[in-house]
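Entry for the shared binder. Reason: the reviewer on the internal report wants the predicted structure included alongside the sequence.
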Amino acid sequence: MVLILIAGGCMGAALLFLAYTIPTDPMIRNARASVDIFKIEGAHAQMIHGYKATTLDNYTDAWMLRNAFYNGKETALQKCLNVYFYGYTNGEPRSVCESMIAWLEGEEGYERISYQRYWHGYLVILKPLLFFFDYGDIREILKFTCLAVLIYLCVLLEKVHMPRVIPAFAAAMACMEFHTVGMSMQYTWVFMIAMFFSVIILKKYQNRTLMKGTYSLFMIIGMMTSYFDFLTYPLFTLGLPLLFWVICMRESENAISLPAMAFKNSVCWGVGYIGMWIEKWVLCTIFTKENIIADGLHSILERSGQDVMGEQIGYIETVWDNITVLVKYPYVLVFIIAGITVFFLCRKYRESKDGFSKGAFITYIYIAVLPFCWYMISVNHSYIHSFMTYKSLSITVFAVLCAFIEVNNLIRAST
């Protein structure tokens, strides 16, 4: 596993180095062509007013764009380690969107700033895209890519004879407001990682190779999440593939061991996620001679703490703030309809083996609880950014409906 971590860090650094060799002049032109979107929508526009779940994160997207089009004279190695951008620290405080727009419109007084503690692996994809397309084009490309992968995953579920899972999966997608994902680059990376590896798990199941290399697979998922994500709803990349893994494994001879195996997969994901982050801090500390390790640890303490702008916020308040994002009639209705659909599909389709899987049922409950564990260790971040961290609850929705399938199997088996 250590070798996988080292190889992942080296590959990640190499890809970023290559991304920083791409000329930035076309990126700046395309960024300038995108300014009106940010002027009209602002930092956190809601696609449906009053629905916090439909909030777009233009604030962070603007940050990603200014990281991408930075055109300083430093070497590619310096840039990929330090991730520079132009900002304004004097005068009136500005939002990221305002700062980006000011630089693109030629305002003086800017300075070079760095953001070293994240990998910013999304730049490997964003820089080539911004070279050819403006922000509006990129939104559409990401939106249709997400839709294509979602459709393919549903088709794959049908091919592996799991139609009863589709309503549960659809409910999870509805609750996370799938249609907003491609509209914000910030949301897209985590979603695509989760979907990509869910497809891999289903393909491995289809090819009868699911048991091979599972722990390494989840470690790689954690590493890729750390590499690409700008701290959004990272647990989604653990929860969704893990659910599909349980769904595939529930009929195996090892089904009774599923809870323990799922926990080990979770640990491997965590090792990959945290280990990849630490690698970036160590690399930056060695090559930049700045103590990025201390900066990273300070950031973790801040994001996991209960201080929110001088006010002490508790765990219960954080959980409630995330749950209330989904306390709307349409989401409740979607959940109920999905449950009813699952109920009738369970009556239509019979298990190929014994109906109820105790191991799968316990594992579904374990996965359903995972988002609440994440909120416990990220109170500050999950409270401030509940408009996106609530998306982890889509795992809970999916897991609870899968557990409901097992309950139906048990009832049918006993009658």
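Summary line for the report: Residues 52 and 387 are 6 Å apart (CA to CA).
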